[in-house]
Amino acid sequence: MMSTHIKNTGLFLATILIGVIGGKIFTYIELPLPWMLGSIIATIPLSLLGLKLYIPRKLDRAMNIILGVFLGCSFKPEILQQAYQWLPSLLSLGLFVFVIVGVTMKYFQKVAKMDAITAFFSAAPGALNLMIFMGSSMGGKEETIALIHSLRVLLVVVTVPFIFRLTGGYVPAEHVGHIASNALSITDIGVLLTSAIAGYYIAKRVNLPAALMTGPLICSALFHVTGISNAEVPSFIIGAAQLITGSAIGCRFKGVGFNKFIKTIGIALGSSTIMLIIGTAFAFIISKIINVSFPALVLAFSPGGATAMCLVSMSLGIDIAFVSTHHLIRVWLISAMLPLLFRYIKNEAKLPAK
After folding, report:
1. Average pLDDT for residues 226-251, to the nearest whole number?
2. Domain locations in the chain?
3. Which of 27, 129, 176, 254 gives the lowest tally of CB atoms within 10 Å of its CB?
């Protein structure tokens, strides 16, 4: 038992060191979201080569709680005067999910020759863990669903910031003024801890999707939007959360192997491109209706993981509250809509299910 613990600690420290090297390189050359993207790019090749990397599941989950609190800090009192403008965009998310799932499912069936169940659960633009669990329980190929979703998150999270970098929409992290670096008061610490602990347990109690991030975000947002607190999560904690989240994404590819990775990444690149085109089209249409910047809408409708895309918006300095609200509601919609949609598709097509 002790030897396993020592071994896992060594693997964890080695993984973090690899992530730090990647983060340092990305920071030096001023690439977007350096600590997350740098750690992802540094760890994935080693995972594919079979090197044993390790990020404790509990630590990865804790980072989601911290990021939820951080994102909630972006909900300032003035947002109450703007939130009504978001309604057309938020209301379109249901249609967005429906269109993406329909089009991408057909792509997987026609191009990748997937069975209908695997294609359906691979086509969801989010809720990775839920889609893997439901897809496998309904008779889909669990490994394929997991790999397609992991590659979707990877490709979108890596691609979108670089597109903004090339088009001039990127502000280096040190110039994004949202993250606090000053010392926190006892009251500030109390607010942040309350948001983290109470927010998570309340969300878990009422079965909110993505409770790890949703609960702390809502609780933190309530403290900030009402003007009760203006506490901010220190920048070094956010940097550590990015590093651990990125390294954990890299660890997901352990055991995949280069051959399967290369074979699948082409399929995932096609599906991610389809999703990004649909998301950009929705962003363009909605930009003509509401007074929100087009870059913020593009990020809000990008089909990356909720945590990762919210970090991207933070790194780019683009309307964190708007983007995070859209991604969380999208996850809730996927969790609610897809089980019902699958029942309909299964009945219509007479699909077998376990």
Report:
1. 87
2. 57-349
3. 129
